[in-house]
Amino acid sequence: MSVRIDITGLRPERVAVVPSPLGELCMALHALSEPGHHPGVQGWATGVTARLDSHLADRMCEADFLWRTTFSDLFMPFAGVPGRCTLPGATLAEDLDLLDKLSDEQFVDAALEFTCALPYSTGGATALDDPGARRRALDLAAARGPQQLRFSERLLSDPPRIRAWLRQFLRDCDEAFFADAWSRLRHQLAADARHKTELLRHRGLAGALAAVSPAVALDEAAGVITIDKLGDGRTATGDGGLLLLPTSFGWPHLSVLHRYGWQPVLHYPVGAAEPASPPSVEQLTKRMTALSHPVRMRICRFLARSAYTTGELAQAHGMTAPEISRHLAVLKQAGLITTRRRGRYVLHQLDVTVVARLGSDFLEGILR
Questions:
Q1: Are strands 242-247 and 15-17 parallel, antiparallel or unpaired?
Q2: H/E element, 125
């Protein structure tokens, strides 16, 4: 499972590393809605929530699915501008002006992303033009609750009204809490962008991507960037560009915009501790599967306390040595146990550090 970006023919000058005020506002809204995802900013989120105007708080609930359950591409309108090489604005006002450049079809499709009703990585009918796509979007919105249904109905019946509502809402958020946060964060994000740009210049795209996240890999021969995520997606830069956007609020989310016809965007977190080599989704799946078997769970109980040979484990569990060996092989392949030789005996022991990290690895993997 991964998201792949075909960069065949991508010119070096078409790769840009630049922060986006609107993209960061999306992550700030998400952190306010899901503070459990972002323990590092819970203090900030608590402070903002405590002093938030009740009217603005109510409006925030009207469409929180745009940044809570999904990160709507509406917060990256520069990627949808024709030509696929537009950069984010330097200010929130400039980013909001770019939002106005999206067509009604683009705006509606991006806003309805939370319904999963429309094809994302491939082209297709829009809910504004196609009655079938419209019905499907409304049915799926209704399944999410009356709030989402009401929003979707207003969106489909009067896109300009929702566009105006969203613009004013974002401006009010800026005045209430985001302008202060952005004044502090923009320097950190700009510094990271300069650092990644220097890496691009001196070490190429591979060097810059390696600094973005261990979950991002570049196959230069194939011309493909692979982002290890719990999901599948494909896009291509084509004759457009590639954007790398740093975010301070975003950890542990590593987001990829791969909407059909839009410029690919890699939205990556900065300023947060991350394991030097976090397990891939495949490796994480192996570990969870290995521990799902009751016999292997019991073996782990022994191996967590001391090192044992295969014969000792077989005797303790009333099983044959070959049966125990098969279970040990699964645990070893998953990277959960270590082995060492003592004379003619091979001792197995649970890697407690790896097992202790499984919970955080799982959470980061599904949120990535």
A1: parallel
A2: none
State how far the Cα of 296 lies from the Cα of 178, in Å rounded to an integer.
Answer: 50
Which pLDDT value is given to residue 37? 75
* Locus of tokens 């969203």: 166
CA distance linking residue 243 with residue 234, whole number of Å: 16
Smallest CA-to-CA distance from 60 within 42, 76, 73, 48 is with: 48
Nearest Cα to Cα of residue 112 among 145, 138, 147: 138
Q: What are phi and psi of 15, to 5 degrees?
A: -100, 125
- Which amino acid is it at 326? R
- Return the closest-CA partner of residue 153 out of 126, 125, 120, 127: 127
Task: State the burial class of residue 114 (Cβ atoms within 10 Å of its Cβ: 0-12, 13-18, 19+).
Answer: buried
**DSSP per residue, 78-118:** GGGSTTS-PPPPSSHHHHHHHHHTS-HHHHHHHHGGGGT-S
Mean pLDDT, residues 232-256 taken together: 91
Q: How confident is the prediction for the chain on average, in pLDDT?
A: 89
How far apart CA 211 and CA 216 sit, in angstroms, is: 9
pLDDT band at 55 (very low <50, low <70, confident <90, very high): very high
Q: Is 90 exceeded by the pLDDT of residue 15?
A: yes
Q: Which residue has the tokens 């989402």?
A: 148
- Alpha-carbon gap, residue 365 to 361, rounded angstroms: 6
* Cα three-residue angle 234-368-175, rounded to 5 degrees: 105
More confident residue, 93 or 301: 93
Question: Among 322, 347, 326, which residue's Cα sits nearest to residue 337?
Answer: 347
